[in-house]
Amino acid sequence: MKKIILGIWVFCAMVLVPVHTVRAQNSEIGACVGTTFYMGELNPTKLFAQPGLAAGLVYRYNLSPRWALKADFLFGKVSGSDALTNNGYERNLSFFSPITEFSVVAELNFLKLYNTVGQNHFAPYIFAGLTVFSFNPKAQYTDGTVYELQSLGTEGQGLEDMPKKYSLTSVAIPFGIGLRVNIGRYVCIGAEWGFRYTFTDHLDDVGGRYYDNDLLREQRGDIIANMADRTPELIDPTTGVPRPLHQAGEQRGNNTTHDIYSFAGATVTVKIGNADRTCDLKKSRKRH
After folding, report:
1. The pLDDT value given to residue 55
2. If you placed Cys at 51, which of 8, 35, 183, 219 could pair as Cys (CB 3.0 to 4.6 Å)?
3. What pTM did the predictor assign?
4. What's the pLDDT score for residue 256?
5. pLDDT at residue 18, as a whole number
6. Low-confidence spans in the chain with pLDDT less than 70
7. CA distance linking residue 134 with residue 166, whole number of Å
8. Which of 285, 109, 147 is nearest to 228 (CA)?
9. How far apart are CA 137 and CA 240, in angstroms?
10. Tally of CA atoms within 13 A in the half-sphere of 194 that contains its CB
């Protein structure tokens, strides 16, 4: 899947480079609003599980009736929980995280899209590009206190002979589908659904193996040790006692895959600039 996504992105870039004749160039600015959700260790398969609100700003530059470049600045929130997704894991882990992203994508309209009378006014499209985003996974402890998980080093990050703490900034490949409709000459409304295939496995703070809980408690304290392995918060229904801690080295997450988050929503943009501007190098120049 990773190779397919990267291939789409490279293809879009290659097609855009040789564009020399551009008609009906114009720019659009506007806003988007919608919902986000996450897929990873704490939600492996369910679409729109624990959705969060998202909103942002949009800028689009129409290269031609077929192609456009779009940049967006988006704010949202994602979350996940073993308990709510019933994924079969007895980890009792959960998280929520703010997301701030900046994306640049290429859009390919299936139909030529115009804003002039008598021309086609709507078009479905696909898109792919590049995203830079920041995140900060957090979780609520049993006493109601919210902790930032990356700083805790729940998988032993930062301790001797362990990897350093993961970065809270990463990149992703955005891709998806959408529909645009021009309303008159100056307004465009649309709907879009896209995924961000990230290059981090710690969007949810779950990506490796359990660190020795006794050593973690000794070196970093009770709170961090308890947040790293929350299995004892679960009560065994047959015995009525808390479930035991995981052994050091047991799988806590799947470090062979990366996390994904998604945005689905609506956009409204207003056209600015000269919609009739053309740049046709084949036209002969006037002699002075």
Report:
1. 98
2. 35
3. 0.84
4. 86
5. 42
6. 1-25, 87-88, 274-288
7. 12
8. 147
9. 31
10. 29
